[in-house]
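Could you please review the protein record set out just below?
***
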Amino acid sequence: MSWIILLLAGLFEVGWAVGLKYTDGFSRPIPTLLTVTAMIISLTLLGLAMKELPLGTAYAIWTGVGAVGTVIAGIVLFGEAMTLLRLASVALIVCGLLGLKFSH
């Protein structure tokens, strides 16, 4: 169950990272409220997952899921570049995340 919680924490990390783009420097109240809410949920879920998972593994996977998800969101939502090098780099992150998961 802690792996599912950790995955959800990573997805909420993507949510707040994307939300930051919409806050316009925290000057827009609704996007700011949603972003801060996603931050709180993400950190709460990370803390719950860390009750059973090792610190290094949980934190690395949380940030990795957030990084990969944010790159994908940037491509889909904001038209960011989808170059071969960029996709290969994301694939390397995913390989690292899988390595951490299966080495636990």
